[in-house]
Design goal:
Shape: globular
Structural class: alpha+beta
Distance between the termini: 11 Å
Strand content: 25-35%
CATH architecture: 2-Layer Sandwich
CATH topology: Alpha-Beta Plaits
CATH class: Alpha Beta
Number of strands: 9
């Protein structure tokens, strides 16, 4: 795993993050073996874009149901306006073009808006943890948004009580490719080890959340973008 090396143009410590873009895809063998090399070129233009606060990438620890490991790309933004400008730029076109070269099939993307309390240092803490867990929650039929939000809030309360960084995001945009998914929420949690996730204090609120939402779980060790190998 790459050792984090700050770049002179990275502004993550001074500029708050209000939005994160999550891209995921079935990763090719080339990406799994040489992800750092690919990301070095792929993200260079992105992190130089005005309003970008950081970028992270990783490969799923365990294969999915079809035996394929997913690749992940996170870009963090100071505002949706900054993200929208990036989406209409040559830098975005180049990033997606290069990403398609290492993806097997379609690339799914969501833009999540973060709550005010999640907008300062928590994104940095969650993605620099030894293991980052994503919980994607889509409301079950007939479940009001406020009920689901309350259940998600309870999960984060328990995590906060036990000293684990977490943030909540609400879907702003749907997929870049394929069909998008509406009303998707994400809980992103930074863990020091797998074993801690399965302890009772954390399992109970997740079980409660599953009564209101269909859940997907991913576990990814992330690297922070660096121009050096």
């Amino acid at each position: 795993m790459l050792k984090y090396q700050p770049l002179p143009f990275q502004r993550s410590e001074k500029m708050p993050t209000t939005h994160i873009q999550l891209c995921y895809f079935a990763a090719s063998d080339a990406f799994i073996k040489n992800g750092a090399l690919f990301m070095r070129g792929l993200l260079r233009a992105t992190v130089l874009t005005t309003g970008n606060t950081n970028a992270y990438w990783g490969v799923q620890e365990e294969p999915g149901s079809e035996g394929v490991r997913a690749g992940y790309l996170i870009t963090a933004w100071h505002s949706q306006g900054d993200y929208d400008k990036y989406q209409n730029s040559d830098a975005s076109d180049m990033t997606m073009r290069l990403l398609k070269e290492v993806a097997l099939g379609e690339i799914t993307s969501h833009l999540f808006t973060l709550g005010v309390q999640e907008s300062t240092t928590i994104p940095t803490l969650t993605f620099r943890a030894k293991l980052t867990e994503f919980v994607l929650a889509s409301p079950k039929k007939g479940v009001p948004r406020k009920v689901l939000k309350r259940a998600i809030g309870r999960v984060c309360e328990v995590l906060d009580e036990h000293g684990h960084p977490a943030m909540i995001g609400e879907n702003v945009t749907d997929s870049i490719e394929g069909e998008g998914v509406e009303n998707v929420y994400v809980i992103v949690i930074g863990w020091p080890a797998y074993e801690i996730m399965d302890k009772k204090p954390f399992v109970t609120p997740i079980d409660e959340l599953s009564s209101f939402a269909d859940l997907r779980f991913w576990h990814v060790p992330f690297d922070t973008y660096t121009s050096r190998l």
